[in-house]
Amino acid sequence: MTMRVLHVYAGNLYGGVEAMLATFARERGRVPEMEPRFALAFEGRLAAELREMGTPPEMLGGARLRLPWTVARARRRLGEVMEGDRPDVVVCHSAWSHAIFAPVARERGIPLVFWLHDAVSGRTREERRARKVDPDLAVCTSEYARGTLAALFPHVRAEVVYPSVPPPPRVTRNDRRALRDELRTHWADVVIVQVARMEEWKGHRLLLEALSRLREVPGWTLWLVGGEQRPAEAKYRAGLSRLALRFGIAPRVRFLGERSDVPRVLGASDVLCAPNLGPEPFGMAIVEGLYAGLPVVATDLGGPREIVDPSVGLRVPPGDPAALAEALRTLIADAPLADSLASAGPARARALCDPETQMRRLSALLADMAKDPAP
Length: 375
Known about the structure:
Helices cover about 45% and strands about 15% of the residues. It has helices spanning about 15-25, 45-50, 70-85, 95-105, 125-130, 145, 175-180, 205-210, 230-245, 260-265, 285-290, 305, 320-335, 335-355, 355-370; strands at about 5-10, 35-40, 60, 90-95, 110-115, 135-140, 160, 190-195, 220-225, 255, 270-275, 295-300, 315. The strands form two sheets. A seven-stranded parallel sheet has the order 3-2-1-4-5-6-7, sandwiched between helices. The chain has a six-stranded parallel sheet with strand order 10-9-8-11-12-13, with helices on both faces. Helix 3 packs across helix 4, helix 8 packs parallel to helix 9 and helix 11 (about 285-290) packs across helix 14 (about 335-355).
């Protein structure tokens, strides 16, 4: 018997959560006993991708916590969805989605799961609202995230399920050369790549400061992948350009914006850097880099601690440009070490995030919970 799982989320931005939900749709044939369905509050790239894959989401008509009538309207719409085709399990992704939509599932007696994708404190408006409805089960995207769950649901059973990240298509030597030509990058350069949203805590400034210490080191180029999704991010991005100029490294920095071909970009790169100033809940971009056979330099915080071990990369203290510069210098200069770390990456990525393995684990957890939900 197929278990129908309704994933409920905002959908207005695009990041790790959206990529994982898209993977559930794309890879649904791997676990046929679990049928993913989707309900989104907002139109965006995720909704478009789901439609392209033949799993059109139910649209709930935007909701804002500060506008109670929009919350009521979205809840009514979700109720209509559930009554028209009752799911076996409802999964609310993030505190915001849980705060708005969990009561709809609870009122109808449908087993309810909260998926924690980020660290929580219990102090934000959406977290305070989310606390009002205990889920039957909490799924956490990392051990680090699970360590914060008690701020919301101290008595709820919690399990860790790493995100499902599929291996990328193979990038050929010709593909690699073509992309480097497109991005005005010499074929022999060591390309350092960062894949992240344009937000301060992602550490772009720190990376530019570290690379300013390597101005005299020849043969490296930086690719920054990530577009501006809010006005503040556009302002931040402009500041990064000015900072690169001030550091004297602007000719070696490429701002690639939002890309739909991130696997191709990674396949044409040499080192992945994740210089976060704060703890990353998990780090799907790091896993994608490992699949692509890239050695990783990451901040020694949060989820990356669970991904980057000494076989695949180097971890550096947070907020330390000198340590970050030294780690990058090491991988630029020591090709045998970089090659050794790179060769171990794909196996590490599969061990952590193989889609079929993680989706089967999720299916088993949801099936058990659906049979015997908490009161």
